[in-house]
Write a structure and sequence with these properties.
Elements (H helix, E strand, L loop, with lengths): L16 H4 L5 E2 L4 H5 L5 E2 L6 H6 L4 E6 L4 E10 L2 E5 L5 E5 L2 E6 L4 E7 L17 E9 L3 E20 L2 E14 L4 E9 L6 E6 L8 E7 L3
Antiparallel strand pairs: 1-4, 2-4, 3-4, 3-14, 4-5, 5-6, 6-7, 8-9, 9-10, 10-11, 11-12, 12-13, 13-14
Protein backbone atom coordinates (compact mmCIF):
# COMPACT_ATOMS: atom_id res chain seq x y z
CA UNK A 1 0.00 0.00 0.00
CA UNK A 2 1.13 3.57 -0.48
CA UNK A 3 0.33 6.54 1.66
CA UNK A 4 0.20 10.28 1.08
CA UNK A 5 3.11 12.07 -0.59
CA UNK A 6 6.26 10.34 0.73
CA UNK A 7 4.83 7.53 2.83
CA UNK A 8 6.65 4.22 2.40
CA UNK A 9 4.84 1.30 0.77
CA UNK A 10 5.25 -0.74 3.96
CA UNK A 11 2.40 1.07 5.63
CA UNK A 12 1.48 -1.04 8.62
CA UNK A 13 5.00 -2.18 9.61
CA UNK A 14 5.21 -4.80 12.38
CA UNK A 15 3.07 -2.98 14.86
CA UNK A 16 0.61 -5.39 16.43
CA UNK A 17 2.27 -8.29 18.27
CA UNK A 18 0.16 -7.77 21.41
CA UNK A 19 -3.09 -7.82 19.44
CA UNK A 20 -2.14 -10.86 17.40
CA UNK A 21 -0.75 -12.91 20.28
CA UNK A 22 -3.42 -12.14 22.85
CA UNK A 23 -5.04 -15.05 24.65
CA UNK A 24 -8.60 -14.58 23.41
CA UNK A 25 -9.71 -15.41 19.90
CA UNK A 26 -8.30 -17.86 17.34
CA UNK A 27 -4.90 -17.16 15.75
CA UNK A 28 -3.39 -18.65 12.58
CA UNK A 29 -0.09 -16.79 12.81
CA UNK A 30 2.13 -19.85 13.11
CA UNK A 31 1.16 -20.83 9.55
CA UNK A 32 1.37 -17.39 7.94
CA UNK A 33 5.08 -17.36 6.92
CA UNK A 34 4.68 -20.60 4.93
CA UNK A 35 1.82 -19.11 2.96
CA UNK A 36 3.77 -15.93 2.24
CA UNK A 37 6.82 -17.77 0.83
CA UNK A 38 4.61 -19.12 -1.94
CA UNK A 39 2.81 -16.01 -3.23
CA UNK A 40 3.74 -12.49 -4.29
CA UNK A 41 1.53 -10.33 -2.10
CA UNK A 42 2.10 -6.70 -3.04
CA UNK A 43 1.89 -4.71 -6.27
CA UNK A 44 0.26 -1.80 -8.06
CA UNK A 45 -2.58 -4.19 -8.87
CA UNK A 46 -2.40 -7.71 -7.54
CA UNK A 47 -2.20 -10.19 -10.41
CA UNK A 48 -3.77 -13.04 -8.48
CA UNK A 49 -6.37 -15.30 -10.05
CA UNK A 50 -9.30 -17.04 -8.40
CA UNK A 51 -7.24 -20.25 -8.50
CA UNK A 52 -4.37 -18.53 -6.67
CA UNK A 53 -6.70 -17.31 -3.93
CA UNK A 54 -8.35 -20.71 -3.61
CA UNK A 55 -4.92 -22.28 -3.00
CA UNK A 56 -4.36 -20.05 0.04
CA UNK A 57 -5.99 -21.89 2.96
CA UNK A 58 -7.27 -18.70 4.64
CA UNK A 59 -9.78 -15.97 4.07
CA UNK A 60 -8.16 -13.07 2.23
CA UNK A 61 -8.71 -9.53 1.02
CA UNK A 62 -6.97 -6.89 -1.08
CA UNK A 63 -6.44 -3.45 0.43
CA UNK A 64 -5.34 -0.19 -1.20
CA UNK A 65 -4.51 3.05 0.61
CA UNK A 66 -5.55 6.03 -1.49
CA UNK A 67 -4.25 5.61 -5.03
CA UNK A 68 -1.35 3.39 -3.93
CA UNK A 69 -0.62 -0.25 -4.74
CA UNK A 70 -2.65 -3.17 -3.49
CA UNK A 71 -1.59 -5.52 -0.70
CA UNK A 72 -3.02 -8.94 0.04
CA UNK A 73 -3.97 -9.61 3.66
CA UNK A 74 -5.15 -12.90 5.10
CA UNK A 75 -7.22 -13.61 8.17
CA UNK A 76 -4.64 -13.93 10.93
CA UNK A 77 -6.99 -14.05 13.92
CA UNK A 78 -10.66 -13.79 14.77
CA UNK A 79 -12.70 -13.15 17.89
CA UNK A 80 -16.41 -13.42 17.12
CA UNK A 81 -17.06 -10.69 14.53
CA UNK A 82 -13.68 -8.97 15.08
CA UNK A 83 -11.31 -10.04 12.29
CA UNK A 84 -7.56 -9.29 12.27
CA UNK A 85 -6.17 -9.18 8.73
CA UNK A 86 -2.39 -9.50 8.35
CA UNK A 87 0.07 -9.05 5.49
CA UNK A 88 3.39 -10.75 4.77
CA UNK A 89 5.09 -7.92 6.69
CA UNK A 90 2.70 -8.33 9.64
CA UNK A 91 0.74 -5.24 8.61
CA UNK A 92 -2.67 -5.33 10.31
CA UNK A 93 -6.16 -3.93 10.02
CA UNK A 94 -9.07 -5.04 12.19
CA UNK A 95 -12.62 -5.14 10.86
CA UNK A 96 -15.98 -5.66 12.53
CA UNK A 97 -18.61 -6.90 10.08
CA UNK A 98 -16.79 -5.07 7.29
CA UNK A 99 -16.08 -1.79 9.08
CA UNK A 100 -12.49 -0.84 9.97
CA UNK A 101 -12.36 -0.47 13.76
CA UNK A 102 -8.60 -0.53 14.44
CA UNK A 103 -5.31 -0.22 12.56
CA UNK A 104 -1.73 -0.88 13.60
CA UNK A 105 1.45 0.70 12.26
CA UNK A 106 0.05 3.42 10.00
CA UNK A 107 1.40 6.98 10.17
CA UNK A 108 -1.94 7.74 11.88
CA UNK A 109 -3.64 4.86 13.66
CA UNK A 110 -7.23 4.17 14.59
CA UNK A 111 -6.58 2.73 18.05
CA UNK A 112 -10.15 2.01 19.10
CA UNK A 113 -13.77 2.37 18.00
CA UNK A 114 -16.61 2.48 20.53
CA UNK A 115 -20.15 2.43 19.14
CA UNK A 116 -22.58 4.72 20.93
CA UNK A 117 -25.48 3.50 18.81
CA UNK A 118 -25.99 0.38 16.72
CA UNK A 119 -23.81 0.19 13.61
CA UNK A 120 -25.76 -0.76 10.48
CA UNK A 121 -22.59 -1.80 8.59
CA UNK A 122 -22.63 -5.55 8.06
CA UNK A 123 -26.39 -5.75 8.61
CA UNK A 124 -29.09 -5.87 5.90
CA UNK A 125 -29.46 -2.14 5.20
CA UNK A 126 -32.67 -2.72 3.27
CA UNK A 127 -34.46 -4.05 6.36
CA UNK A 128 -35.11 -0.42 7.34
CA UNK A 129 -36.58 1.82 4.67
CA UNK A 130 -35.52 5.14 6.24
CA UNK A 131 -31.90 6.36 6.07
CA UNK A 132 -29.92 4.98 8.99
CA UNK A 133 -27.58 6.81 11.34
CA UNK A 134 -24.65 5.82 13.55
CA UNK A 135 -22.82 7.50 16.41
CA UNK A 136 -19.39 6.28 17.53
CA UNK A 137 -16.26 7.47 19.37
CA UNK A 138 -12.74 7.05 17.97
CA UNK A 139 -9.29 7.05 19.57
CA UNK A 140 -6.57 8.21 17.16
CA UNK A 141 -2.78 8.30 17.43
CA UNK A 142 -0.35 9.99 17.31
CA UNK A 143 -1.55 12.79 19.56
CA UNK A 144 -3.66 10.66 21.92
CA UNK A 145 -6.85 12.13 20.47
CA UNK A 146 -9.37 10.03 22.37
CA UNK A 147 -13.15 10.02 22.35
CA UNK A 148 -13.60 11.77 18.99
CA UNK A 149 -17.35 11.58 18.40
CA UNK A 150 -18.33 10.83 14.81
CA UNK A 151 -21.90 10.97 13.54
CA UNK A 152 -22.84 9.47 10.20
CA UNK A 153 -25.85 8.88 8.01
CA UNK A 154 -26.41 6.13 5.43
CA UNK A 155 -28.31 6.03 2.19
CA UNK A 156 -28.54 3.62 -0.71
CA UNK A 157 -27.11 4.85 -4.00
CA UNK A 158 -27.90 2.00 -6.40
CA UNK A 159 -27.69 -1.71 -7.16
CA UNK A 160 -24.33 -2.73 -8.58
CA UNK A 161 -22.77 -6.00 -9.73
CA UNK A 162 -19.14 -6.50 -8.66
CA UNK A 163 -16.60 -8.58 -10.55
CA UNK A 164 -14.12 -10.00 -8.04
CA UNK A 165 -11.53 -12.27 -9.66
CA UNK A 166 -14.06 -13.34 -12.29
CA UNK A 167 -16.89 -13.94 -9.83
CA UNK A 168 -19.90 -11.68 -10.37
CA UNK A 169 -21.64 -10.65 -7.14
CA UNK A 170 -24.92 -8.72 -6.92
CA UNK A 171 -24.68 -5.93 -4.33
CA UNK A 172 -26.27 -2.74 -3.11
CA UNK A 173 -23.99 0.30 -2.98
CA UNK A 174 -24.52 2.29 0.24
CA UNK A 175 -23.00 5.62 1.12
CA UNK A 176 -22.04 6.78 4.62
CA UNK A 177 -21.56 10.51 5.09
CA UNK A 178 -19.83 11.25 8.39
CA UNK A 179 -18.48 14.18 10.38
CA UNK A 180 -16.52 14.88 13.56
CA UNK A 181 -17.20 18.46 14.65
CA UNK A 182 -14.28 18.45 17.10
CA UNK A 183 -11.77 17.99 14.26
CA UNK A 184 -13.73 19.73 11.52
CA UNK A 185 -13.53 16.42 9.66
CA UNK A 186 -16.02 15.23 7.07
CA UNK A 187 -15.82 12.06 5.00
CA UNK A 188 -17.74 9.75 2.71
CA UNK A 189 -17.50 5.96 2.92
CA UNK A 190 -18.87 3.48 0.40
CA UNK A 191 -20.01 -0.10 1.05
CA UNK A 192 -20.94 -2.74 -1.52
CA UNK A 193 -23.13 -5.15 0.45
CA UNK A 194 -25.12 -8.31 -0.10
CA UNK A 195 -28.75 -7.11 -0.21
CA UNK A 196 -30.01 -10.06 1.87
CA UNK A 197 -27.31 -10.65 4.49
CA UNK A 198 -25.58 -7.26 4.56
CA UNK A 199 -22.17 -8.87 4.04
CA UNK A 200 -19.65 -6.24 2.90
CA UNK A 201 -17.82 -7.47 -0.22
CA UNK A 202 -16.06 -4.20 -0.94
CA UNK A 203 -15.69 -0.87 0.81
CA UNK A 204 -13.87 2.44 0.66
CA UNK A 205 -13.42 3.84 4.17
CA UNK A 206 -11.78 6.85 5.79
CA UNK A 207 -10.34 5.34 8.97
CA UNK A 208 -8.69 8.50 10.39
CA UNK A 209 -8.77 12.24 9.64
CA UNK A 210 -5.49 12.63 7.70
CA UNK A 211 -4.97 9.36 5.84
CA UNK A 212 -6.43 8.62 2.39
CA UNK A 213 -9.31 6.14 2.40
CA UNK A 214 -8.67 2.41 2.49
CA UNK A 215 -10.28 0.40 -0.30
CA UNK A 216 -10.95 -3.19 0.72
CA UNK A 217 -12.09 -6.02 -1.55
CA UNK A 218 -12.87 -9.45 -0.15
CA UNK A 219 -11.21 -12.18 -2.22
CA UNK A 220 -12.20 -15.10 -0.04
CA UNK A 221 -14.62 -14.60 2.81
CA UNK A 222 -14.24 -16.32 6.18
CA UNK A 223 -16.02 -19.64 6.52
Amino acid sequence: MAGPAHTTRRIFLAGAPMLLCSACGKSFLSDVPTVWRTYVMKGDDLSLTRADVDHIPYASLAVRLGDGPQTLLILGRYDDDMLDWISADREVIVTRRGRIVRTYGLPEDLKETVFLTADPVGQPFGAVAAPQQCLRALDVDPGHRDGIVVSSRFEKLRDETLDILGERIATELWQERGAAARLDWEFTNLYWVDPVTGYVWKSRQAATPTLPPLEITIYRRPA
